[in-house]
């Protein structure tokens, strides 16, 4: 082989050697870069796994919160339904109470009217009672003076009438026992001495309620009995003298 050929071969090998060296350096850089990429990939994978775990944990948390929200929604719906029923019951109760209040108010007004009327009637009755009592006292005073009576009121509310100027044998003073109840009614309870027709006299007083006429009539009867008994007693004394 001549020198030119050798030189050419040497140049070719040198050129090839340079190329190989370049390629070797490129491969070395690729390997270095690949190693770096592998580390990055590994780091990214680790980060990805961490994120996935975080997302799963967040998903589980959200799922639990969703379940709780659903329970709360169900509870609220149940309470809403219960509140509606309770509201209806309360509205019904309120209506009943308003009705009762209206009735009580009407009843109260009615009672107020009755009270006012009762007070007026009471005042009128008191005036009439005072007037009647005054008339009664005047009549009693008149009869005391004219008929010689004495009136006495005992602790039981009974009225005792004593005829001061009439007496009969065995009875120093003729008297009547009368009652006058809240209904303004006179009744004969007893008499001394007892007349044979006491019961008809009592019935007549109960029917007529004419106390003045009754006392006057009984006085006359006692006078008659007293006079007849005195005459009978005098006759007996005269017949004994011979």
TrEMBL record:
It comes from the Eukaryota. This is Kinetochore protein SPC25. It comes from Zootermopsis nevadensis.
């Amino acid at each position: 082989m001549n020198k030119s050929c050798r030189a050419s071969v040497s140049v070719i090998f040198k050129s090839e050697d340079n190329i190989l060296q370049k390629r070797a350096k490129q491969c070395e850089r690729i390997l270095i870069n690949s190693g770096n990429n592998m580390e990055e990939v590994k780091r990214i994978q680790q980060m990805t796994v961490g994120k996935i775990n975080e997302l799963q944990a967040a998903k589980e948390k959200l799922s639990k919160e969703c379940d709780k929200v659903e329970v709360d929604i169900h509870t609220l719906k149940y309470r809403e339904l219960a509140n509606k029923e309770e509201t209806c019951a309360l509205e019904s109760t309120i209506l009943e109470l308003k009705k009762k209040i209206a009735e009580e108010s009407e009843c109260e007004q009615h009672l107020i009217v009755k009270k006012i009327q009762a007070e007026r009637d009471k005042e009128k009755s008191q005036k009439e009672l005072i007037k009647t009592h005054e008339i009664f006292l005047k009549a009693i005073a008149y009869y005391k003076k004219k008929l010689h009576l004495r009136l006495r009121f005992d602790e039981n509310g009974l009225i005792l009438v004593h005829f001061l100027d009439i007496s009969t044998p065995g009875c120093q003073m003729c008297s009547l026992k009368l009652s006058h109840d809240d209904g303004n009614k006179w009744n004969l309870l007893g008499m001394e001495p007892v007349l044979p027709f006491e019961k008809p006299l009592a019935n007549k007083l109960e029917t007529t309620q004419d106390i003045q006429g009754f006392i006057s009539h009984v006085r006359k009867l006692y006078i008659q009995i007293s006079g007849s008994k005195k005459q009978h007693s005098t006759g007996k004394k005269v017949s004994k003298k011979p």
